[in-house]
Amino acid sequence: DEWTAEMDKAWSDLWAVACRSMLDVTLAADKHGEVVRKMWNDTRARTTCAKFGSNLRKMLLSGTEWVQGLSQGVDSKGHAEAGSTTPGRKLKAPLLGGKSHDDKDDASVASSARKGSVSGDPKANGGNGSATMGSDLKADKEQTSEEKAKANSDADAVGSHFWEMLSTLMDYLWEPEQMNERLVVMTKTFFELGVRQQHLETIGGAICFSIERALSEMWQPSMKEAWQWFWKMVSDAMGAALDVLESGDVELIRAGWEEAKESRPAEELGDIFFKELARIAPHVTHLFKRPKR
């Protein structure tokens, strides 16, 4: 008797909006899902983890501190290194088109940048002239060699982490709940290696570029659209997890719980919990039975 025409219209409008949203999600998945899965499978068939990582690393060069931090997580390759796991500068990459120093040897560029001069002018070395040039060149060569090895290590690391992540996510493409569960675990690892929310857009673009390079003539415009659909889904989930991790709430809650356990015995904590539960939600207290631990 209390049902009115206004209620009927409001419910109908709400349900129509919900149906349109569900339909949009379903149609997008139907359009892009198998495209992005085939795109990744073809990428795996046409390139290697190391080559993929090398291309990806070049797209992220302006965030070298963060990229190098990834190498710490690749124990299986035998070149895990100690170093900072704090995030580097906000990642910016020349993703599509244009030329940059990516076309040069990465290590040479880094070496030149640190020394501040690539002119070979003896005066730039303190005025010692040709007597010191031979030793300087030898030192440059040795340093470049080390940097090349480090660059290869970082490329392997980048490739390993993202190669494994994408392969896992493609397996659960049609099982969103399980995919999100795995994304939470993966995001924790990436957070410890320096990835932050502001990096996700650039990372997605860099991966797309690396896939395009691997597929070469097989690349189609529809693949970019499919990738954008997929990465939005991934980055939304990762962004939510990173937001929690960046806020420090996890550590705060953990520290508070440890302090509570040290300050009260388990039985007393159980009593406090049960009394508070009875105060704020008495209708659910029948779900709990003693002992309350």
Briefly say what this structure is.
The protein is mainly α and 293 residues long. It is built from ten helices and no strands. The radius of gyration is 27 Å and the shape is flat.
> How many DSSP E strands?
0
Helicity range: 55-70%
- Indicate the radius of gyration in whole angstroms: 27 Å
The residue ranges in which pLDDT falls below 50 over 5 or more consecutive positions are 73-141
Structural class: mainly alpha
Overall geometry: flat
Beta-strand residue fraction? under 5%
The profile of the biggest β sheet is: none
What's the total helix number? 10
Q: Helix and strand succession? A: HHHHHHHHHH
Distance between the termini: 48 Å
Residue-averaged pLDDT: 74
Structure commentary:
The chain has 293 residues and is mostly helical. 69% of the residues lie in helices and 0% in strands. The chain contains 10 helices and no strands. Helix 2 (49-59) crosses helix 5. It is flat, with a radius of gyration of 27 Å.
Give a topology summary.
Layout: H1 5-46, H2 49-59, H3 64-69, H4 106-115, H5 130-171, H6 176-192, H7 200-215, H8 221-247, H9 249-263, H10 266-280
Helix pairs in contact: 1-8, 2-5, 2-7, 4-5, 5-6, 6-8, 7-8
Key structural traits:
293 residues, mainly alpha, 10 helices
